[in-house]
Specification:
Elements lengths: L5 E2 L6 E2 L10 H13 L6 H25 L5 H18 L2 H11 L12 E4 L1 H5 L2 H6 L1 H7 L3 E4 L3 E2 L13 E5 L6 H13 L3 E6 L3 E3 L3 H7 L3 H4 L4 E2 L3 H7 L14 E3 L5 E3 L6 E3 L5 H17 L3 E4 L17 H17 L4 E4 L5 H6 L8 E3 L1 H13 L3 H10 L7 E5 L12 H6 L4 H12 L11 E6 L4 E5 L2 H4 L7 H16 L3 E5 L32 H4 L8 H17 L10 E2 L7 E7 L4 E7 L5 E3 L10 E4 L4 E4 L4 E3 L4 E6 L4
Parallel strand pairs: 3-4, 3-19, 4-7, 7-13, 13-14, 14-15, 15-16, 16-19
Antiparallel strand pairs: 1-2, 5-6, 8-12, 9-11, 10-11, 17-18, 20-21, 21-22, 22-27, 23-26, 24-25, 24-27
Helix pairs in contact: 1-3, 2-3, 2-13, 3-12, 3-13, 15-16, 15-20, 20-22
Length: 652
């Protein structure tokens, strides 16, 4: 084995390895100690495999860990313990998952396939429990799913659980949903059916009922240091000079007072306490929880609230450089002990900040909140200028990464476009957001949308939008226009590049649940309006295309099938295309000598794409939906809310 030792330019520290001469450096001394603690012996297959990946990835982990904790005298002991825990997790990793690791090692772009299709649901609302999810696997295959995201399902306080995002134990399933063993079995069965399991890793905070939090509340100094707890208001007041309130209606500022008079950081709700990652023991503890989930059979972790995970006095405590270092360090741990595990970032922040989390060494996948928001913006304005600008300027991301494209999620819709981008198009960002809020809660004349305001503040004009896709598109009236809007929106999510993600139930046009406030704990959160119970009566109509449910289902299945049969749709690379028509969005997906020209008419009227606009292509194109050859050298016409995917050849 030949390995070099390099110097980290940032820290000046030697990154450990072993010289070709065989002289041992601290890295392999750490490995030997870690292997001994983990019970792995030299010569074991587990040792050989782990040592190979250690040679590749430990220098990164060393550099990152030192960057975060190198100022502490005990940092190397923490690193040794982390490495031992990582080696132990690899030793315990089930053999079928190690086979999966090996297979994906040679197919690292598996998640960029044009056959990928995601679905997301709450276990209890969609299928009652984990066994109910298991029973729906045949339907998932009918739909074409290859990726299933089960919303937070771990033990959490009731009824105030923030939809499961207040975790009381990462190693216990909410007993209403099932057991951890059932989750392990479900993961295996999904995997056997070609479906990757995705779960949330809520790693910014725990619930106040977590064992760590309870010990901290009792005054245990070790666990008090797991959180940001202060004896008085001096430090909270200092932090809050720069930190914004996230949920001001829940509690003012970012801190809440404990019964003993101390103050604990709670960015979101009073019952969600932020973890203190300046303490390396917290990193080690959460790395252990992460690897436990990986060994359960989870393929992808949705990294929740990534922007908030590092705190530094005098800053906004959002999107700090150390947040990226933390994610990269967690990633390096995975490369050692669960090499096929992927991260998906959840960062609903400025578009420039979203992009910074997307990297093969950080988060390989990322939600695409800007595209989602601007699909709805174009729907309201019938003008695609902002969306086209975003696709041209902000869509392409590093090789080895992918967007997760969605029309809506479990969360509200916020208008996350950059004001400076809007200003280039003559749009005032503040005024435009007020218009969009008014439009989507049906307060604007002529609006078709039936959204519900979330955190509406009439004084400031701040508001976000709740609602199912169908209700936001106006399907309450069952109109053909609403059906066309639903399919138009999804045509963009399915064709821009990345993994399209459906909120399950939207494929049969589920409507808002206006009775959401009747459920205990939901009355103050309008997002439950778009998290309805399983719409059994709508699924029963999905095979009848004469019904709205059947028309939506048939249209989405057609999008899925055509995308899966179109190799140009793999990956994320996108080329812009100016339609010279502000009502029609255009873009290209490049292939081997061909391109897919995607067009989407957001207007309520027929729109022409002129022959001159299309003159850069050969005279004939293949319409992927009709499978017919069409002439485009005389221009084409798109019907209202219509879309087309054309295989074109650049003109010679």
């Amino acid at each position: 084995m030949v390995e070099s030792a390099s110097v980290d330019q940032a820290s000046g520290q030697q990154v450990p390895g072993s010289h070709a001469s065989g002289h041992q450096l601290p890295g392999h001394q750490l490995l030997s100690v870690a292997a001994e603690r983990a019970g792995i012996r030299q010569g074991d297959p587990d040792w050989t495999d782990f040592e190979r990946r250690f040679d590749l990835h430990f220098p990164d982990l060393f550099r990152l860990f030192h960057s975060l904790y190198g100022s502490r005298p005990d940092w190397q002991e923490h690193l040794t313990s982390l490495l031992a825990e990582t080696a132990r997790s690899w030793k315990d990793r089930p053999s079928d998952l190690k086979i999966l690791d090996a297979g994906r090692d040679g197919n690292s772009d598996w998640f960029q396939s044009n056959r990928m299709l995601g679905g997301v649901c709450y276990v209890d609302r969609y299928a009652a429990d984990l066994e109910g999810v298991r029973a729906r696997i045949p339907y998932f295959k009918e739909l074409g799913l290859t990726y299933l995201h089960l919303m937070p399902l771990f033990l959490s306080p009731e009824p105030l659980s923030d939809g499961g995002y207040a975790v009381s134990s990462y190693r216990e399933v909410n007993p209403r949903l099932g057991t951890m063993e059932q989750l392990r079995e479900l993961a295996a069965e999904l995997r056997a059916n070609g479906i990757s399991l995705v779960v949330d890793f809520i790693f910014n905070h725990t619930s106040n009922e977590h064992e760590w939090a309870q010990k901290a509340a009792e005054g245990d100094p070790r666990f008090s240091d797991y959180y940001w707890i202060f004896p008085d208001r001096a430090m909270p007041d200092a932090f809050e000079q720069n930190v914004r309130e996230i949920f001001p209606e829940d509690h003012p500022g970012s801190f809440v007072q404990l019964q003993d008079g101390r103050w604990v950081w709670a960015t979101f709700h009073t019952f969600q306490w932020d973890l203190n990652y300046s303490n390396p023991e917290v990193f080690r503890a959460m790395a252990g929880e992460m690897l436990f989930l990986a060994n359960l059979g989870v393929d992808i972790l949705r990294m929740d609230a990534v922007a908030f995970i590092w705190k530094q006095l005098g800053t906004s405590c959002e999107n700090l450089p150390e947040a990226h270092t933390l994610l990269q360090a967690f990633n390096a741990v995975c490369r050692l002990a669960a090499p096929s595990l992927l991260f998906k970032s959840e960062a609903i922040v400025h578009p420039d900040e979203v992009a910074l989390y997307i990297d093969p060494a950080e988060c390989q996948l990322s939600y695409n909140p800007l595209q989602m928001a601007l699909i709805w913006e174009a729907m309201a304005t019938r003008n695609v200028s902002l969306l086209a600008q975003a696709l041209e300027r902000r869509h392409n991301i590093p090789a080895g990464t992918s967007w997760v494209n969605y029309v809506r999620s479990h969360d509200d819709i916020g208008w996350t476009f950059a004001d400076e981008d809007a200003a280039e198009l003559g749009i005032n960002g503040f005024d435009h957001r007020r218009f969009l809020n008014s439009f989507f809660v049906n307060r604007f004349p002529g609006s078709f949308a039936q959204g519900v305001p979330f955190q509406d503040n009439p004084r400031t004009g701040d508001c976000r939008i709740s609602g199912t896709t169908a209700s936001l598109c106006g399907l309450e009236d069952g109109s053909s226009e609403a059906i066309r809007r639903i399919l138009l929106a999804h045509s963009v999510a399915f064709s821009t590049g990345g993994i399209p993600l459906l909120y399950l139930g939207d494929e049969v046009g589920q409507l808002n649940d206006y009775q959401y406030a009747m459920e205990d704990g939901h009355e103050a959160d309008s997002r439950w309006v778009h998290r309805p119970q399983f719409p059994a009566e709508r699924y029963a109509k999905r095979t009848d295309p004469s019904t709205p449910e059947g028309a939506v289902f048939d249209g989405l299945r057609r999008l899925t099938a055509v995308r899966a049969g179109t190799p140009e749709m793999a990956g994320t690379r996108l080329l812009p295309f100016a339609t010279n028509n502000r009502g029609v969005l255009g873009y290209q997906r490049p292939g081997d000598g061909t391109r897919i020209l995607a067009l989407a008419n957001f207007s309520d009227d027929p729109q022409v794409i002129t022959a001159e606009t299309l003159s850069g292509f050969a005279a004939e194109a293949l319409d992927l939906f009709s499978e017919a050859t069409v002439r485009i050298d005389e221009g084409i016409v798109l019907r209202p809310q219509d879309y087309a995917w054309l295989r074109v050849v650049p003109a010679t």
